[in-house]
Amino acid sequence: MTSSPADPFGAASERRVAALVADDRVHGLATATTAVATPTPPTRPTGGATVTEDRWSAAFWDAHYDTRPQIWSGDANAALVAEAADLPPGRALDVGCGEGGDAVWLAARGWRVDAVDVSPVAVERARAAVQRAGWADAVTLTAADLRSDPPAAGVYDLVNAQFLHLPPDVRRPLYAALADAVAPGGTLLLVLHHPRDLAAGIPRPPEPELFPDEHELAGALDPDRWEVLVTDARPRPVTLPDGSTVTGHDAVVRARRRA
């Protein structure tokens, strides 16, 4: 599957994710997914299927990836390309690596990449993508839940976290841990769908608390430790389920950790 130039993340992929994560999601746990350890989270029927309430678990995202042999375009996220193209390569942490598009892009530019995703299915697809591209020696892939297993502090020249939407009580400590993982002089890049999208008719979960804007993201960074270089509500065209196109926005924050 490839994306259109106007929608580098893939409109169909966005619609599938929105359907899965929103209250009207239709996908349930597939029989081939990783089993959930007991005791299991509460479940509820949705659209004729049953899904776990933990929408950020390995089982939930394995179920999503099991719906298709490929979910994403395989290309790097546009904000990463825009913000990291001129950075000197070093060691990078790619958070929520999905099927490996960002990890491959970084490795091709000389980065050593630790790529992490909660979904083992996604990690295996990313591993295959990295091997096809010839960068297996440059990328280390790990299936891990960073909510309970945060990265080591102070070791990365770049921490890249794209579209990691979480409830505030989970997001704040996890994003603080991601910031702590950046080495002095390194870069933190945070990209999320913007809360403006909720009023634009774009299929997003109707939960505003999952969508901090760029000012909230930047405001969580201690100015004594961080130089915020970019706080942007970045527009891009998004194709809706009916085929029409509207302008969506991404909240983009790039900051450099002070030495």
Automatic annotation (TrEMBL):
Keywords: Methyltransferase, Transferase. GO terms for biological process: methylation. Residues 93-186 form the Methyltransferase domain. CDD domains: AdoMet_MTases. Pfam families: Methyltransf_25. The keyword Transferase applies. Transmembrane segments: none annotated. GO terms for molecular function: methyltransferase activity. This is SAM-dependent methyltransferase. It comes from Pseudonocardia alni (Amycolata alni).
